[in-house]
Write a structure and sequence with these properties.
The protein is an alpha/beta fold and 506 residues long. It has three domains: 149 residues, no CATH class; 168 residues, Rossmann fold (3-Layer(aba) Sandwich), CATH 3.40.50; 126 residues, GMP Synthetase, Chain A, domain 3 (2-Layer Sandwich). Helices cover 35% and strands 21% of the residues. The longest helix is centred in the first third of the chain and has 17 residues. The N terminus is likely disordered. One of its GO terms (molecular function) is acid-amino acid ligase activity.
Length: 506
């Protein structure tokens, strides 16, 4: 394996030297849009919205925005995607072989995103670009001699009556790995196909000492639980006792910072954390530079992006898009500004609002950070709390009390007097009597709008604490345990009531 490590690292060095400078972001995106329109012009969607005429116009981007409306999932599915199981050439040429169910959802209410061969190719292309960027990190050869463990959702996909295969996007990706991936991919397709989460993790823990893991990819919460399970199973002090070459964690799905301290506890050596923006709708961005977790947008990989300012120019006070929002291209965005991301892709998504809010951290190259979801924007009574602001307050609360708080849930609920309060549930071993007041003060410091709301319509906050075991039991009850499951941090009132009823049970 040592010679392989040398060859791989040398190959990355050569690739870095041979790779020519990218086009400007604006030119790259114009090219992507034209290619997407050209490929889809003879689909039902392309004919309905006149893609061929858009391509002939003097300004295809402006014409595209005028002719094609912005879609959310419900609109895209009901009007177009629901027809793709019966008919070809609806929003993309041919029929998709797969449908990706959105993470954290099950049953009939799941979002089902069409996954085409072209789309799978783009995800591999972005992954290759991320691997090529490792040259700039100057990792030792031992990393390239080791294996990568991908904690995905189950690769045992469901097949519906029409013959389409369905699962979460990470499981679809794993099921499409070529045979030669078995040289370095762990836990392997057999274990990855185990549907039950606990059974799959137990199988990983059992075989863990046989592997030489250098990198792990997955959602922090579930990866942490897996590492803790391995350490417990083999009575280890830390994970580096069996995986001394573990050096890289490719994080994604949720913000990493609330998990950092617990990762440090299970690791003897420092690890490099690289963030990824990998959703059912695409592999959108990835960390490409050392000493930062900002992510480079995939501007040349089959995606066309638009950006709606996440303020009064683009959204309402509740975070919903305006009927006629301001829409910007990559050349018009500003560093430090938050935007709702709009995507068109070779999966047949057109001007599709994913629901994520991003902020540009740099423009050369365009690098972003996910600051939250539009639905995770807590503003029922004008508090204007973003996920990022809430994460910051929770981290400070944990530091003040010398504890870790990985997960939390919050909802605006009415108290017995019919007035709004914020109900918080923290997943932690911490339990002190004044968490309510401490968190309240930290939130006031983090956001002046919250402070104003607390002096008016928001009458208080209530904090409850649950253990990690209670939290995972709640997820299990709702069929949401798994390697790619993400729990909404901001809940609707009814969902919070369900959680409170569950944790109140003896």
């Amino acid at each position: 394996m040592a010679i392989i490590g040398k060859l791989v690292k040398a190959g990355l060095d050569i690739t870095s030297k041979l790779t020519s400078a990218d086009d400007t972001p604006q030119h790259s995106q114009e090219k992507q849009l034209k290619e997407l329109l050209s490929q889809a012009k003879n689909t039902a969607f392309g004919k309905y919205y006149g893609f061929e005429e858009i391509l002939k116009s003097d300004d295809p981007i402006d014409t595209f925005r005028k002719e094609v409306p912005i879609f959310n999932y419900e609109q895209m599915h009901s009007l177009w995607w629901s027809r793709q199981e019966r008919f070809p050439d609806i929003t993309w040429p041919g029929k998709p072989d797969f449908f990706a169910r959105s993470s954290g959802t099950t049953g009939k209410s799941s979002k089902r995103i069409p996954i085409t061969d072209d789309f799978l190719a783009t995800m591999k292309s972005v992954g290759t670009s991320m691997i090529n960027s490792l040259h700039d990190f100057d990792f030792p050869e031992s990393l390239f001699e080791s294996e990568i463990l991908m904690l995905s959702s189950s690769a045992n996909l469901d097949e519906n009556e029409q013959g389409f295969r369905e699962g979460e996007i990470s499981g679809i990706n794993v099921s499409n790995f070529p045979g030669w991936y078995d040289m370095f991919y762990r836990p392997g397709k057999e274990i990855a196909a185990i549907s039950d989460w606990d059974e799959r993790v137990n199988a990983i823990a059992e075989q863990a000492p046989e592997w030489n893991i250098g990198a792990i990819a997955g959602i922090p919460s579930w990866v942490l639980l897996m590492l803790q399970r391995i350490i417990e199973r083999h009575q280890l002090n830390d994970i580096h006792e069996i995986w001394p070459n573990f050096q890289v964690f490719a994080s994604g799905g949720v913000a990493f910072e609330t998990y950092r301290e617990d990762f440090e506890k299970v690791c003897k050596k420092p690890i490099t954390v690289m963030d990824t923006y990998l959703a059912s709708e695409g592999f959108i961005a990835y960390t490409c530079r050392p000493d930062t977790m900002d992510m480079k947008l995939a501007l040349s990989h089959g995606y066309y992006f638009e950006f709606i300012p996440f303020d009064e120019r683009g959204v309402s006070e509740t975070g919903d898009l305006l009927s006629k929002p301001m829409v910007l291209g990559i050349e018009e965005v500003e560093v430090g500004q938050e935007y709702v991301l709009i995507l068109s892709s070779c999966a047949g998504a057109w001007r599709y609002a994913i629901g994520d809010v991003i902020r540009f951290e740099s423009l050369e190259p365009p690098q972003v950070k996910i600051t939250g979801r539009t639905k995770f924007f807590l503003n029922v009574v004008g508090s204007q709390l973003s996920e990022e602001k809430m994460d910051k307050a929770i981290l400070e609360l944990a530091e003040i009390n010398g504890a870790t708080i990985n997960e939390y849930m919050v909802a605006a609920v009415k108290n017995q007097d019919g007035e709004y309060i914020h109900q918080w549930v923290l997943v932690t071993e911490l339990n002190t009597s004044d968490l309510d007041s401490k968190l309240d003060e930290l939130l006031k410091s983090a956001n002046k709008n919250y402070a104003v709301a607390r002096s008016k319509a928001l009458k208080g906050i209530d904090v409850k604490v649950i253990s990690k075991d209670q939290y995972t039991a709640f997820l299990a009850q709702n069929n949401k345990k798994g390697g790619q499951t993400k729990t909404p941090k901001v809940m609707k009132e009814e969902k919070m009531k369900t959680l409170l009823e569950f944790i109140s049970q003896p």
